[in-house]
């Protein structure tokens, strides 16, 4: 059911790679809620072509931008304002990539050039997007930035390696820039810390299936899906959350507040019994 929550709002949605992407679901919901927006992804992701299908569905223009390039980001804002006919009300940062994870490097054997790449793509790009927007005065008063994070920023998940550090930086940038942009223009900045989700970025993390199952068993509501995440993000772009800023908002079915669940206790008891047989 649509509520017209984003009626008349203009946005930029990054990171829609394929139908599984969280950004893909956000784009569909944003369209349903009445927004107009542009879609953006790294030039290399464009070659896969799926984003064109989404663009047609959403009646949106695609603007290619490498999130680490200030020039590309500037072009993204300038073109988006041109295409959409005015300043921007919401921006989704749905970008993450770690060469170390891709190459299965453990935390004690990281390649530092790749580490910097992970930080640049997954965290500093959020700062670049806000600093560029500020310089161009591209965002309307009461605009909203959202980036996607993961609980490995606060707690250790060994297989998440340098992405955990990138997420910690990302969340810190949301606080730092949230303060600045709030004072300047009443613009709010938040991160949404999402449950493990079966996407290209998600399932690239070593041991993801186990993470996923574990989080599902621990969470009273189960894992939040990409679609659930999209619904939540839409509320953060809407005027219903005007006073929420500088927060890391946990969207995880309750996972982060549970010590041990009954379901997990049952599972472990079963393992124990099997071992004794
Ligand atoms: P995804 O693989 O569909 O999206 C990641 C996107 O980042 C892709 O579209 C990719 O092309 C883009 N990207 C990579 N390098 C880029 C660059 N240099 N410039 C511009 N774009 C670039 O996967 P998903 O899961 O939808 O990821 C979106 C966000 O959600 C990421 O920040 C991820 O860390 C975060 N997240 C994902 C979770 C999961 O379990 N899937 C859990 C919590 C957060």
Automatic annotation (TrEMBL):
It holds the Pfam family adh_short_C2. Gene3D superfamilies: NAD(P)-binding Rossmann-like Domain. NAD(+) binds at residues 15, 21-22, 95, 167. One of its GO terms (molecular function) is enoyl-[acyl-carrier-protein] reductase (NADH) activity. GO terms for biological process: fatty acid biosynthetic process. It comes from the Bacteria. Transmembrane segments: none annotated. It catalyses: a 2,3-saturated acyl-[ACP] + NAD(+) = a (2E)-enoyl-[ACP] + NADH + H(+). InterPro entries: Enoyl-ACP_Rdtase_NADH, NAD(P)-bd_dom_sf, SDR_fam. Pathway: Lipid metabolism; fatty acid biosynthesis. Keywords: Fatty acid biosynthesis, Fatty acid metabolism, Lipid biosynthesis, Lipid metabolism, NAD, Oxidoreductase. Signal peptide: none annotated. It is an enzyme of class 1 (oxidoreductase). The active site is at 150 (proton acceptor), 160 (proton acceptor). Coiled coil: none annotated. SUPFAM superfamilies: NAD(P)-binding Rossmann-fold domains (SSF51735). Its EC number is 1.3.1.9. Belongs to the short-chain dehydrogenases/reductases (SDR) family. FabI subfamily. This is Enoyl-[acyl-carrier-protein] reductase [NADH].
């Amino acid at each position: 059911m649509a509520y017209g929550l984003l009626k008349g709002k203009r946005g930029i949605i990054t990171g829609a790679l394929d139908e599984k992407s969280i950004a893909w679901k956000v784009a569909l919901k944003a369209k349903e809620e009445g927004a107009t927006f542009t879609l953006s992804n790294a030039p290399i992701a464009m070659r896969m072509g799926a984003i064109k299908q989404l663009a047609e569905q959403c009646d949106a223009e695609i603007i290619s931008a490498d999130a680490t390039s200030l020039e590309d980001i500037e072009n993204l804002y300038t073109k988006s304002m041109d295409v959409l006919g005015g300043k921007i009300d919401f921006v989704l940062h749905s970008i993450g990539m770690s060469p170390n994870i891709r190459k299965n490097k453990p935390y004690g054997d990281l390649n530092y050039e790749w580490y910097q790449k992970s930080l640049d793509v997954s965290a500093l790009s959020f700062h670049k997007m806000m600093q560029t927007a500020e310089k161009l005065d591209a965002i309307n008063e009461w605009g909203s930035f959202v980036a996607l994070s993961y609980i490995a920023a606060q707690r250790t998940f060994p297989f998440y390696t340098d992405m955990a550090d990138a997420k910690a930086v990302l969340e810190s940038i949301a606080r730092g820039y949230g303060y600045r942009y709030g004072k300047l223009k009443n613009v709010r900045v938040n991160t949404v810390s999402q449950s493990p989700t079966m996407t290209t970025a998600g399932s690239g993390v070593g041991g993801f299936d186990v993470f996923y199952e574990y989080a599902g068993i621990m969470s009273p509501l189960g894992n939040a899906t990409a679609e659930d995440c999209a619904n939540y993000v839409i509320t953060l772009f809407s005027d219903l959350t005007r006073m929420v800023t500088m927060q890391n908002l946990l969207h995880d079915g309750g996972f982060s507040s549970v010590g041990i669940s009954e379901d997990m206790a049952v599972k472990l008891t079963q393992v124990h019994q099997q071992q004794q047989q």
